[in-house]
Amino acid sequence: MLQRAGAWFLYSGIQNEAGGVARYYRSDIRENARVSTEITGYSISALALLHARTGCAEYAEAALRAARFLTQRAWDPMLRAFPFEWHSNGHAPQPLTYFFDSGIIVRGLLTAYRRVRREQQFLDAAAACGCAMLSDFVTGEAIHPILSLPKKNHLPYEPRWSAGPGCYQLKAALAWFELAEETGESRFRDAYEESLDRALVCHETFLPGDTRRDKVMDRLHAYTYFLEGLIPRLSLRKCADAFKAGVGRIAHYLREIAPEFARSDVYAQLLRVRLYGEAVGVLPLDEAAAAHEAEELATFQLSSSDLRIDGGFSFGRRGSESLPFVNPVSTAFCMQALDLWNNRSQAFSTQDLI
Q1: Which H or E run includes 261?
Q2: Closest Cα to residue 227, out of 212, 248, 252?
Q3: What is the pLDDT of residues 271-303, one digit of tens each?
Q4: CA angle 253, 277, 43 (to 5 degrees)
Q5: What is the CB neighbour count within 10 angstroms for residue 149?
Q6: Which of 71, 118, 165, 196 has its CA 20 to 30 A from that of 240?
Q7: What CATH number does the domain containing 87 carry?
């Protein structure tokens, strides 16, 4: 599974020559979506994991190409921002920058710096972006999710989860936690702690959050980000309680909705947090549920004579029909979850979490 997923990252064309990674491959029209800075950040972490697990130098080189793409091409030093999407000929949508995407990019760059090669440009760009996240997105009451460029005006909130503030933003705030560990700067640690307090206040109303069942499935993906963001503070009773209750809520809705619409990343994220909860002694593992989730998410890995598809994981399915999106984040989450499940004795830290 790991080798086939890794081969997809290397040889499918999902990563372009410059190092940027497309949001997904559309198998029905045989075309990659635009390069996404967020997905490139996720892919750095996935490639670093593959390098650590296999020792194959190709993964390290691909991770470095992705990191250098972010620091040398995508990062705008004048605006101090990573754009939502990037295109060499300027054919991109409305210029936007996202708080959540910025956090994922920072974590990817820190992974490249810590685990692949200690190039100062990776740490410098990560720290600069972390500072911009603090100065541009954060107000006294909320973290604005989306800013327009170049003026960095925050966009009006919308009902969809990614267009409003919420507990899911705690995963992006892990970037501040990890920057604090790397740089020793207390302002980053304080920013994470403030985000944690915000998330704990509002998280209970996040689910179901919609009357449409497919939208609830999407919100399960986002709510699991909240659980992942809790991980550094699971020694605190309030965080452990929210984590345990959250696992149960996600499992309930996933079982209920999956026959109609299932996302592979939700299965993978739920299995990962179960395994982490077991590893730190916060939540005894429900063996039967975890085995079911591992079995289900493995069915999303694709087989094809087409290198653009083979080994990647599908984003999801409606009923029994697979959706035509071969997705880098789904592939990253699923391969990590299955690798952790198959090797449960291996150490697993917050920094490992893609």
Answers
A1: strand 261-263
A2: 248
A3: 999 999 999 999 999 999 999 999 999 999 999
A4: 80
A5: 15
A6: 165
A7: 1.50.10.10
**CA dist., res. 59 & res. 49, Å (int):** 9
Residue 32 has pLDDT above 90, yes or no: yes
Name the pairing type of β-strands 146-148 and 153-154: antiparallel
Band of pLDDT at residue 149, cut at 50, 70 and 90: very high
Number of domains in the chain: 1
Overall average pLDDT of the 323-341 stretch: 97
Res 94: pLDDT: 78
Spatial separation of the C-alpha atoms in residues 145 and 93, rounded to whole Å:
17
Domain of 258 in residue numbering reads as 2-352
Q: Which of 236, 13, 211 is nearest to 22 (CA)?
A: 13
Alpha-carbon span 341 to 262, nearest angstrom: 20
Does the pTM of the predicted model rise above 0.85? Answer: yes
| Distances, alpha carbon 199 to alpha carbons 22, 25, 71, 292, in Å | 30, 33, 30, 29
- CB count, 10 Å around CB of 94? 10
Helix (H, G, I), strand (E, B) or coil at 130: helix
**140 — pLDDT class (breaks 50, 70, 90):** confident
Residue holding tokens 């992006």? 172
Contacts of 155 (CB under 8 A, 6+ apart): 96, 144, 145, 146, 147, 148, 163
